[in-house]
Amino acid sequence: MKEKDLKEQKQCPFKPKLNKNYKKAESHYSKKNYDKKYMEMVHKKKLHTEYLKQEGEFNEMKECTFQPKMVSTDYENLDRELK
Length: 83
Description:
Blueprint lengths: L1 H10 L10 H7 L2 H32 L12 H8 L1
C-alpha cells in the first residue's frame, strides 16, 4: 500500500504552496475553538434573555401604585428606628 502511495506521489507534479498563516486559520476553525465560541454565544443569549425578562418585570412593577413599607430584620437598624 505504501509503495503505491509513494509511486503516485512521484507521478503527481502538483505540489501546493501553503500560506504561512494556514496554521493560524486551522487553529481558528478548530472544533475546540468552535465549541468555545458557541458556548460564549449561548451564555450571551441567556444573559440577554434574563435581562429582557427583568426589564419586563420592572416595567410591569413601575405601573403599580402600592408600595409596602419593608420591615428590617437587622437588629441594629431596628434599634435606630425605635429611637
